[in-house]
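Is flavin-adenine dinucleotide placement plausible here? Inputs below.
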Amino acid sequence: MEDYLNQHGYISGHYPQSIDLAQIGGLVATRSSGQFSTKYGNIENLVVGFEAVMPSGDIIRIKNVPRRSAGPDLRQLLIGSEGTMGIITEITIKIFPKPADRWMCAYGIKNMREGLHIIQTFMREGWNPAVVRLHDRLEAAKSYSKFLNEGESILLILSEGPKMYAQAEGKALDKIIRDGRGRSLGPEPVESWLEHRNNTDELHEFTNQGIIVDTIEIAANWSDIGTIYEQVTERLKKEVPELLLVTGHSSHSYPQGTNLYFILGAHPPQDPEGVERVYQSIWKKVMEITLENNGTICHHHGIGKLRAPWIPQELGSSYTMLKKLKRSMDPQGIMNIGTLLPVNEGEEKDAQSIYSCY
Ligand SMILES: Cc1cc2nc3c(=O)[nH]c(=O)nc-3n(C[C@H](O)[C@H](O)[C@H](O)COP(=O)(O)OP(=O)(O)OC[C@H]3O[C@@H](n4cnc5c(N)ncnc54)[C@H](O)[C@@H]3O)c2cc1C
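Reply from A.M.:
I modeled the complex. Tokens:
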């Protein structure tokens, strides 16, 4: 789709790292975010209409209009529903003219707190760069060490759009970042990120040695995000003895806050129970720290079955709406049971037993 649009002078603006693997229906069903989302928006901002097949077999269509004030936004019932409410069969998305120009620069940053504060400053002022990535010192040292001083984090910025827009935004961001003690490194680190951004081959080297590698992405407001970063990186090292590594970056920012994307590696005992125990203990700690600090347990990978046990706590008093919605959309309990809404093991036999455990 992206290639087709590019040939005709347009872009989708939606580039998840999984772009070569994922289907557009799956991306909509998981509420995905692209690497340029800070400018173009997440998938829920891009989908303007669709067709879906309901569990009853009914086919519904939501037409494409620029905006409507006709009751709740029904698109949102299926965006992020992870196959639990219906099957999306056709999608209409916004597209954008291919940008005429780009401005790119990277900066050495003293630490994550300072970097998060810089991003907060320019996002609140209303600037809209396409790429804003703040990698902590471990991630920075791994990929950009030749540009950095010992212990520095790195901030990558890419602005794009019409010629005068990209250059003007770049100039303004450069001043804000330097005022925040960012050390300009030029465009090369951003060019390197653009070239290698979807390559995950090295992860196989670790998994082949019995090392668990996983990623967990969460989000929170500016007031809490720095604490979540510090608690996850510090507490996990102390509380999970099998942990080898925890790193983090922020890659999708908003005026109110940002996400954190943690990369975790652990060397568990080489038996299935040991692997399960260590894996679950890592997830439990990150989920608990995030919830304790007012964050959301999921920024863009969806809930699935793994995160489903925390969805009642995530949604709080509004969880009851999700349960009612699921019952009324899928009364026979035939759509992806156990995904998004948790069920007790062995209780997913028929609709009555499924819904009795909600
Ligand atoms: C290496 C890697 C990098 C990734 N990077 C990103 C990233 O940058 N941003 C991001 O947002 N995500 C990312 N992801 C997550 C991934 O993009 C999505 O979870 C998933 O790929 C979505 O598309 P899919 O077609 O593979 O869906 P699947 O994995 O097949 O399905 C995901 C869920 O959606 C449901 N579903 C699928 N299609 C439909 C449909 N048509 N109608 C209704 N329900 C449906 C399925 O039942 C399932 O519950 C990454 C994943 C990997 C492995």
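Short version: The first strand starts at residue 10 and ends at 11.
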